[in-house]
Design brief:
The protein has eleven helices and eleven strands. It has 273 residues and is of the alpha/beta class. The protein has one domain (3-263): Rossmann fold (3-Layer(aba) Sandwich). The strands form two sheets. The chain has a seven-stranded mixed β-sheet with strand order 1-11-10-4-9-8-7, with helices on both faces. Strands 3-2-5-6 form a four-stranded antiparallel β-sheet, covered by helices on one side. Helix 7 links the parallel strand 8 (180-183) and strand 9 (212-216). Helix 4 (123-134) packs parallel to helix 6 (162-175) and helix 5 (137-146) runs antiparallel to helix 6. The two termini are 21 Å apart. 45% of the residues are buried. The model is unreliable at 1-14, 19-24 and 261-273 (pLDDT under 50).
Length: 273
């Protein structure tokens, strides 16, 4: 299915295509926005006109099949990949040459789907480093407790399970108190208890701290429960489905992504490589 056909079909079935970033909300409500992003790798067009406008104080979940460009869009947002066209705006102003370290100084943090911890360092050493850098002793204590990692502080990072490591990495991100948090597949391969703790922390950071939180993944059940707003990526573009209830009741989304109409129960796609 071509991008044009995909967009037309979605619009005909009631999906709202994401519109221009500066036409949606004022800059204060959308600290980071991506507008009409396109990207081609060789002959493969991954993004055609993808727009993402996450609101402050809300969790925006981005769902889509493998290869639809979710991770690419997040990496473009953080300056790790240069788009072929489109705009990145921070506080309503275009960012001409986004770079991850510059965006980080302005409160944007990317939690990638790859290990971040130094294997030989203990978790306490990691947290102490970030705590001192951001003068955030109280925040560090709070997130350590809420993410259930107090008993792991003296363990080398290399000895942690995947769920323990992911909770620890999220703790380090939240101690920084980012106003925009972009999480790429944070629930992949997580046990239910780990996923629940991660979702609770992400929800709290958005709702209590007023941060714009973006989460990608395929764990549809957990992510729809977490979301305030749902964006569906298909055929290289984005479609705003609105609330999780609206997304769950959307015929085309269920048919083409959740699979509910064919199997009788929602199913998640496999992890993007």
């Amino acid at each position: 299915m071509s991008a044009a056909r995909g967009g037309s079909a979605a619009a005909a079935d009631g999906v709202r295509p994401a519109v221009a970033a500066d036409a949606v909300r004022p800059a204060a409500a959308t600290p980071l926005a991506l507008d009409s992003i396109g990207k081609t790798f060789g002959r493969r067009r991954v993004l055609t006109a993808a727009t993402l406008v996450p609101a402050a104080g809300r969790v925006t979940v981005v769902l889509g099949r493998n290869g639809t460009g979710k991770s690419t869009l997040i990496r473009i947002a953080t300056g790790q990949i240069r788009p072929d066209h489109g705009r990145i705006l921070l506080d309503g102003e275009p960012v001409r040459r986004p770079r991850l370290h510059r965006l980080a100084r302005r409160g944007v943090f990317h939690l990638p789907d790859e290990p971040l911890l130094a294997r030989t360092w203990t978790l306490r050493e990691h947290i102490d480093l970030v705590r001192r850098r951001f003068d955030a002793a109280e925040a560090a204590r709070g997130w350590v407790e809420r993410l259930g990692i107090g008993g792991l502080l003296d363990a080398p990072a290399g000895s942690l399970s995947s769920g323990e490591r992911r909770r620890s990495e999220l703790c380090l991100a939240l101690v920084r108190s980012p106003r925009v948090l972009l999480c790429d597949e944070p629930l992949h391969s997580m046990a239910p208890i780990d996923a629940e703790l991660l979702c609770d922390a992400l929800r709290e950071h958005a709702h209590a701290k007023g941060a714009a939180v973006v989460v990608t993944g395929h764990e549809a059940g957990h992510l729809l429960d977490l979301a305030d707003d749902v964006v569906w990526m298909t055929a290289g573009t984005t479609h705003a489905l609105g609330s999780p209830d609206h997304a769950r009741s959307h015929h085309q989304f269920r048919r083409e992504y959740l699979g509910e109409l064919r199997t009788g129960a929602p199913r998640s796609g496999r992890r993007q490589s």
